[in-house]
């Protein structure tokens, strides 16, 4: 394991914000992780994956532990299901491509989500009608205080919309080293309810889609509207889509009959934050070095050289204007790091 001093994190966060950490360790095995967790200098370390869901607000006074544990293998299987065990440092999209190549179904709708496998349970990643929890078997985490390893079942993880126990009661308590997914070997259950997915498959004249077709279609849709962090710094959706009481939605719809929404249950509905932000006039508008993306208003973008504070200040302005127009509080999805 290599411990480095005074390291720039610019290449380690997809916003491309320039900050430095006093101490940086990259761990490639669970044993290396356990060793670094015992090192007092790393007591309050920030755990980093691919840096695609973080906004560094300022220079980091904390050390950083980057988790680069590799490996993908099938550890159990029957005629229908394979349990695949994956190291936390595997690139998520590489895992999706490996599953598609090996005809294992379940995560094809999650193609092209940036970042590493270890972060996937933290916010229960989701896209195009599938969330991690739908295929989750369990995960191994190492306790930051005692270095002991613990298995987390789906129930232990308390997954919700962009949420899990690791963002709440167990925040900063465990480092995920491995996740296990239960994937189908045949008779894959495809999730095609999203209109954009159906339209893309129809355009491609695919009548009986395979998991590879779904992965290709999702990739195409994502490339058409989400900015590539290599070219334009961003962390995907900056805010969560707000969940409001149905009564509030009904009142808003008297004023904005065209407002899109999705029913969650009889009491709650979700409103796309991108629509609220677009209505508030921020879509594609550049303010200094930052702005909300021209093709997807929910994506906060670094147009070059912005600091974490500049990005956060713009996000706060968006929150303020959306609140004053619609009475809705937007909540950041991205993790704000001090
Ligand atoms: P990081 O940003 O490095 O870390 C995120 C959080 O997880 C931090 O709090 C970190 O401390 C913690 N963490 C990381 N690794 C571990 C570990 N091993 N153990 C414990 N804690 C850990 N997300 C979606 O859900 N759906 C999408 O469709 C989606 N689209 C995106 C599109 C773009 C263009 C971008 C840039 C981001 C998108 N995201 C999306 C957000 C992001 O890709 C996911 O949240 C991803 O899981 C983050 O992975 P990461 O390795 O980059 O995590
Ligand atoms: N919309 C607008 N203007 C915009 C953007 C969106 O009006 O500029 C409205 C439209 O009505 C559109 C609707 O919002 O139909 C939904 O937009 P989209 O399909 O792009 O999805 P989203 O709700 O903005 C969510 C996730 C994404 C995920 C996609 C696909 C959240 C916070 N975001 O975005 O996840 O990829 O659905 O499932 O739930 C991420 O978490 O980083 C992320 C990119």
User: What's the overall average pLDDT, rounded?
Assistant: 97
Order of secondary-structure elements: EEHEEEEEHEEEEHEHHEEHEEHEEEHE
Count up the helices: 8
Number of domains: 3
Share of helical residues: 10-25%
> Low-confidence segments, ≥5 residues, pLDDT <50?
none
Q: What is the 3D shape?
A: globular
How far apart are the first and last residues' alpha carbons, in Å? 26 Å
CATH topology descriptor of the largest domain? Uridine Diphospho-n-acetylenolpyruvylglucosamine Reductase, domain 3
Q: What does the largest sheet look like? A: 5 strands, antiparallel
Which strand order do you get reading across the main beta sheet?
Answer: 6-7-12-10-11
Give structural attributes.
338 residues; alpha+beta; Uridine Diphospho-n-acetylenolpyruvylglucosamine Reductase, domain 2; Uridine Diphospho-n-acetylenolpyruvylglucosamine Reductase, domain 3; Uridine Diphospho-n-acetylenolpyruvylglucosamine Reductase, domain 1; five-stranded antiparallel β-sheet; four-stranded mixed β-sheet; binds flavin-adenine dinucleotide
Walkthrough of the structure:
The chain has 338 residues and is α+β, with helices and mostly antiparallel strands. It folds into three domains: 3-67, 2-Layer Sandwich (Uridine Diphospho-n-acetylenolpyruvylglucosamine Reductase, domain 2), CATH 3.30.43.10; 72-184, Uridine Diphospho-n-acetylenolpyruvylglucosamine Reductase, domain 3 (2-Layer Sandwich); 233-337, UDP-N-acetylenolpyruvoylglucosamine reductase, C-terminal domain (Uridine Diphospho-n-acetylenolpyruvylglucosamine Reductase, domain 1, Alpha-Beta Complex). Helix content is 25%, strand content 27%. The strands form six sheets. A five-stranded antiparallel sheet has the order 6-7-12-10-11. Strands 1-2-5-3 form a four-stranded mixed sheet. Strand 17 and strand 18 form a beta hairpin. The two termini are 26 Å apart. The site of uridine-diphosphate-2(N-acetylglucosaminyl) butyric acid has 16 residues, from strand 13 and helix 7. Flavin-adenine dinucleotide is lined by residues 14, 47-54, 67, 88, 113-116, 118-120, 122-123, 125-127, 175-176, 226, 229, 234-236, 335.
């Amino acid at each position: 394991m290599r411990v480095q001093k005074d390291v720039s994190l610019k290449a380690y966060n997809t916003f491309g914000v320039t900050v430095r950490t006093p101490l940086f360790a990259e761990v490639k095995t669970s044993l290396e992780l356990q060793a670094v967790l015992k090192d007092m200098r790393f007591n309050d370390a920030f755990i980093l994956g691919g840096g695609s869901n973080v906004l560094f607000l300022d220079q980091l006074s904390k050390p950083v532990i980057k988790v680069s544990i590799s490996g993908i293998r099938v550890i159990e299987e029957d005629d229908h299901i394979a349990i695949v065990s994956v190291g936390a440092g595997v690139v998520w999209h590489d895992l999706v491509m490996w599953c598609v190549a090996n005809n294992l179904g379940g995560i094809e709708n999650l193609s092209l989500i940036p970042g590493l496998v270890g972060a996937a349970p933290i916010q229960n990643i989701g896209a195009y009608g599938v969330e991690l929890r739908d295929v989750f078997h369990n995960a191994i985490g190492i306790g930051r205080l005692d270095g002991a390893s613990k298995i987390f079942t789906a129930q232990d993880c308390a997954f919700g919309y962009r949420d899990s126990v690791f963002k709440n009661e167990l925040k900063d308590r465990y480092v995920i080293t491995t996740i296990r997914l239960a994937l189908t070997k045949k008779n894959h259950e495809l999730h095609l309810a999203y209109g954009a997915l159906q339209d893309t498959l129809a355009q491609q004249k695919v009548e009986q889609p395979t998991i590879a077709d779904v992965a290709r279609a999702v990739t195409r849709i994502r490339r058409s509207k989400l900015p590539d962090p290599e070219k334009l710094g961003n962390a995907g959706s900056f805010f969560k889509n707000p969940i409001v009481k149905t009564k509030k939605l009904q009142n808003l719809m008297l004023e904005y009959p065209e407002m899109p929404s999705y029913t969650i249950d009889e009491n709650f509905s979700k409103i796309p934050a991108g629509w609220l932000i677009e209505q508030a006039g921020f879509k594609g508008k550049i303010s200094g070095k930052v702005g909300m993306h021209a093709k997807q208003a929910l994506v906060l973008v670094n147009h070059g050289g912005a600091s974490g504070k500049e990005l956060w200040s713009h996000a706060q302005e968006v929150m303020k204007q959306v609140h004053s127009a619609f009475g809705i509080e937007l909540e950041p999805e991205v993790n704000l790091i001090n």
